[in-house]
Design a protein that fits this description.
Layout: H1 3-8, H2 11-15, H3 23-37, H4 46-62, H5 65-77, H6 83-87, H7 104-111, H8 122-129, H9 141-149, E1 157-163, H10 165-170, E2 172-183, E3 199-200, E4 209-214, E5 217-222, E6 231-232, E7 245-256, E8 265-268, E9 284-290, E10 297-299, E11 302-309, H11 311-316, E12 318-323, E13 328-333, E14 342-345, E15 359-365, H12 373-386, H13 391-402
Parallel strand pairs: 1-9, 11-15
Antiparallel strand pairs: 2-7, 3-6, 4-5, 8-9, 10-11, 12-13, 14-15
Length: 408
């Protein structure tokens, strides 16, 4: 990404969010736009494809706190989106009068100690701002030439995967079919028709950038003849039309670890779009969606399960056979267990690195809807034997009904 991009491109507008938007708002806006503009939904629509690339570039910058901070700093420094950079700072600089072009490199070169320090020019200012170091001065013509012709990291790619409840808990290996930019198979990324080769751009001399004066400033910008690559393709590849990149469908096998949650975003390093000119691949981000289960729920690393028991089992106690995700276990229900009590089966929940979660079994007393005459007589007999379980509550209610101020 060039310095000019940082100055002139409005990534917030590209995503339709304000400059105060937090990470969640930015992510939500990106995901909606990416779904609407994805090449799968817009086959052959070049406008949607270009917009998709712009949205992806904006998200790459704004989703990274460090790069977002650098972007905001650059826009504040140079007038917020290019206007200040094109018009010059209010009041101008001493020595920039008479309408003569004024190169910021002159100012910073003099401040740094003369001609020797000026070599990086304006690029050195941005190199310091964006944390470059070592080798060619960041932002200088030499550094931009190296960036244009050297290796470039591939784009990050985001996709979605829907898992069953069991798969999310136990882990699963799934094939993911997706479309993303990749090296053109016809020209192997050169952009030239097979049998031909690109040649060094005569306009920029292979630097990928040209300088121009505008108002009181001198700016470097991507060379229009070679589109900033430093190379010119006379006979473009018929497949990629000279870009060296095509949208490709690929299937990769991904291991989803155990214990993932609904909505979790998993990063798989090096599984994104391939790099250009030998650069490393980007990362793949998989957003997981988990289906509900008929029996089990989840609370953190614990699984939850509700089991009905009869009234005699609650009173006398019993031993139940309850399911887990991979086997059955026995559970002892103590005598006198109240309906709604939760019993814990340790280690039979979500697998973890340190320890597994537990299975939380809630017992509920099942009340029959209909009784035979004999069963009804038995229940009445039992009720008479057990007596009233609410003596204190009954006594308190009677006292309030007969006390001062009661209504009769």
């Amino acid at each position: 990404m060039s310095t000019r991009d940082f100055i002139e491109k409005d990534y917030y507008a590209a995503l339709g969010v304000s400059q105060k938007a937090d990470a969640a708002e930015i992510k939500k806006a990106y995901r909606k736009l990416a779904r609407d503009l994805h090449p799968d939904k817009n086959p052959g629509n070049t406008d949607a494809e270009a917009r998709f690339k712009d949205v992806s570039e904006a998200y790459d910058v704004l989703s990274d706190p460090k790069r977002r901070g650098e972007y905001d700093d650059a826009r504040r420094l140079f007038g917020g989106g290019g206007a200040g950079a094109r018009a010059g700072f209010p009041g101008g600089f001493p020595g920039a009068g008479g309408g003569q072009p004024f190169d910021l490199g002159d100012l910073f070169g003099q401040a740094a100690g003369g001609a020797g320090a000026r070599a990086g020019g304006l690029g050195d200012l941005f190199g310091g701002l964006f944390g470059g170091g070592g080798g060619a001065a960041p932002g200088s013509a030499r550094a931009r030439s190296q960036a244009a012709s050297g290796p470039a990291r591939g784009q990050d790619v985001e996709t979605e995967a829907t898992l069953s409840f069991e798969e999310s808990v136990l882990g699963v290996t799934v094939p993911l079919r997706m479309q993303s930019p990749g090296t053109c198979p016809t020209c192997t990324g050169t952009g030239a028709r097979p049998g031909t080769s690109p040649h060094t751009c005569e306009v920029c001399g292979g630097a990928g950038v040209t300088s121009r004066s505008q108002g009181a400033f001198a700016f470097s910008e991507p060379c229009r003849a070679c589109r900033g690559t430093g190379q010119v393709v006379d006979d473009p590849c018929p497949t990629c039309h000279g870009d060296g990149v095509t949208t490709q469908t690929r299937t990769i096998t991904v291991r989803i670890p155990s214990g993932v949650k609904d909505g979790q975003r998993i990063r798989l390093a090096g599984k994104g779009a391939p790099g250009r000119r030998g650069g490393p691949a980007g990362d793949l981000f998989v957003v997981v969606h988990v289906s509900d289960h008929d029996l089990f729920g989840r609370k953190g690393d614990d699984l939850t399960l509700t089991v009905p028991i009869t009234f005699p089992e609650a009173v006398l106690g019993t031993t139940l056979t309850v399911p887990t995700l991979d086997a059955n276990v026995t559970l002892k229900v103590p005598a006198g267990t109240a309906s709604g009590r939760t019993l814990r089966v340790r280690g039979r929940g979500v697998p973890g690195r340190g320890r597994n979660g537990d299975l939380l079994v809630t017992v509920e007393v099942a009340v029959p809807q209909r009784l035979s005459a004999e069963a009804e007589r038995a229940v009445k007999t039992l009720d008479a034997e057990l007596g009233d379980p609410r003596p204190q509550i009954t006594a308190a209610a009677q006292a309030r009904s007969t006390g001062p101020g009661s209504v009769r």
